[in-house]
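Session log. Operator J.P. requested a structure for one protein chain; no other inputs attached. Running the standard single-chain path with C-alpha cell output.
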Amino acid sequence: MKRYSLTSQSFTGEVVFVFNDLNLLESFDTSGAQLSEKQQIFILRELPRELSEMQKVLGNSNSAKLTEVSADITFEVFWKRYRAPLNSKKKLAENCWKRLSQARRNLAYNFIPIYESRMEPGVSKLYAETYLNSGPWINQI
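Structure written below.
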C-alpha cells in the first residue's frame, strides 16, 4: 500500500489517499483537513481512481502538494489520528503499540476510519489502549 498526504495553502490539515499495490485508490480520508464545501465537492469530483490520475488533481491547484507518507507509522501519528477519548491513557496505549509488529501497527492505523464509520450512534469510542489490545482491525482490512 502507498499512502499520500495532500496539503495546500488553501486549506489547513491534510487529505490522505491510500493506493493498493496495483496503484488503485483504496481509500481517502478528509477528516484531517478543514475543507470548505466547495473544496469537498472538488475532491469528490476529481477523485483519482488511480495513482497516475493524482497529477490531474494537482494540476488544478497552484499550491497543492502531494507527499508520500512513510509506511512506518509512529505512535504519535496513530495517537493524533485516533483522537482517543479523554480517559484513554496515552502511556498505556503506547506500551500496547510497542508490542505490535510494524505490519499490525499499519493495520491498526489504517482501520481507524473503517472502525469510526461502523460505530453505532450513541456508542462510545474504545479507549486507544483497548482498541490496540482487542484488535478489531485484525482480519478486517
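Operator note: Residues 2-69 form one domain.
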